[in-house]
Amino acid sequence: DAGVIQSPRHEVTEMGQEVTLRCKPISGHDYLFWYRQTMMRGLELLIYFNNNVPIDDSGMPEDRFSAKMPNASFSTLKIQPSEPRDSAVYFCASSFGVMGNQPQHFGDGTRLSIL
Amino acid sequence: AQSVTQLGSHVSVSEGALVLLRCNYSSSVPPYLFWYVQYPNQGLQLLLKYTSAATLVKGINGFEAEFKKSETSFHLTKPSAHMSDAAEYFCAVGTGFQKLVFGTGTRLLVSP
Predict the structure, then answer these.
(1) Per-residue pLDDT reduced to its tens digit, A6-46
(2) In angstroms, what separates the C-alpha of B45 from chain A's closest C-alpha?
(3) Chain B 28-47, CB below 8 Å of chain A: which residues?
């Protein structure tokens, strides 16, 4: 079975550019999560969706960050404009059922470098 | 609100030695507990999950964890470490409709 698919795997861009990260969750899963991982701050939850609706975006660091889930099989995380401090690995994860009782399935992440 | 504490950001063992990674949780209601492993350049993979069916949970790759309510612990163990076990390990706690809370991770180093 296909797992969570993220693209691109690596992104290098210059400060000020728009960055779009993409995620395809596991088919049938009703929760989707975006995380950011850095050495300094560890794993941070940015936002999560339930049935394509954003539920909690309290982890989104600034208005430069936005996320959408237009349908059950696709989500994007956008950064505009990007800054060097946004450099991190961004993970997408999905799960099915009662959120706190079920494991999340992670993609392999997008390694983002902002120059 | 629930929380999880992983003692030791790094743990070093020799190949063949016992692996013990510590996780303590805080929760006002019966928790669900998870251990994940992250290999370099990969996402987190589920090792095992505690759901109250049994206090000793067996996972993949020979790992197991024991839920101890009196100690609010869910430590991860493996009898004999292998070089391929070198990775970062995360403990997570969840309850009902609350989002999972992840620990800060423990990096396991295995020496020959």
Answers:
(1) 999 999 999 999 999 999 999 999 999 999 999 888 999 99
(2) 7
(3) 32, 34, 36, 41-46
